[in-house]
Amino acid sequence: MVISAAIEKRGIRIMKSSNRDAIQQAFTQQASGFESSQLNFTRQDYLDHIVSVITPLTNDSVLEVAAGTCVCGRAIAPYAKNVVCLDMTPAMLSVGKAEAEKADLHNMAFVLGDAAGMPFLESSFDLVISRLAFHHFPDVRQVFAEMVRVLKPGGRLVLIDMEAAKEPLRQVRDEIETLRDPSHVKNLSMAEMQQLFADYALQVVYQDVTSIQQHLTAWMALTKTPQAVQEEITMRMESELHGGAKTGFAPYRVGKEICFDHRWVLLIGQK
Fold it and tell me: Does residue 227 sit within a domain?
């Protein structure tokens, strides 16, 4: 695999970042339950949508950045030449590797590394993807620049992440997201995501936004949010439902369950 040679030349390099410890701690805790069917972060219909709009080619070398359990990469692997999953949390990569083996996916590699300093040569991949990760990065430009660096000329970069709440509730929502998951930094707006593509001279060839329903209790259970914090977040959601201060989540009820919608932005740019 072309990736092996690149790793040997550069060596696996994990760069320090102010959020690295928080990310590793959070996702080590989440790894065992990350593929739960009760959660909407791995929902099959959205993975099918990603594959359909990307339309990977049989000779594509693919990289999933901050891949976690490489849910997206595993969905693409049957249609591509090879898929590399890069993540800084060993527990997440272990789950992903085990799931790939169960699915008889033999064209995948799992690499421990930091998205802010990837152990790959320039122009190594036809397709570079990041799914639901950018809100964890203290410096999104550094990660985006690395994604562009390892992308081949003519290759495609795919960015998928949650859209920020509208002002003036953007900061309030990010505060609640960070209460629930301390590795959260901030959500980007659609305009900010588009600007990244423009700043690095990538032509946006596709974009869409999908509303994904989340159940509050399952959303907090995934991150093993402490009970006292769960109660505080629930109280704030309940207060908004009864006309109190807005959270930026616009919660609603489905039966007795409090729910809200994430807006997932998908952008594809060509180098």
Answer: no
Q: Does the reported pTM lie above 0.90? A: no
DSSP labels, 80-134: SSEEEEEES-HHHHHHHHHHHHHTT--SEEEEE-BTTB-SS-TT-EEEEEEES-G
Phi then psi for residue 144, to 5 deg, are: -60, -40
Which residue type does 61 have? S
Separation between Cα atoms, residue 59 and residue 73, nearest integer Å: 15
What b-and-e string marks burial along 200-238, b requiring 16 or more CB atoms within 10 Å of the CB? bebeeeebeeeeeebbbebbbbbbebeeeebeebeebbe
Instruction: Give the CATH number of the domain where residue 24 resides.
Output: 3.40.50.150
Which regions in the chain score pLDDT beneath 70?
Answer: 1-42
Q: How many domains does the chain have?
A: 1
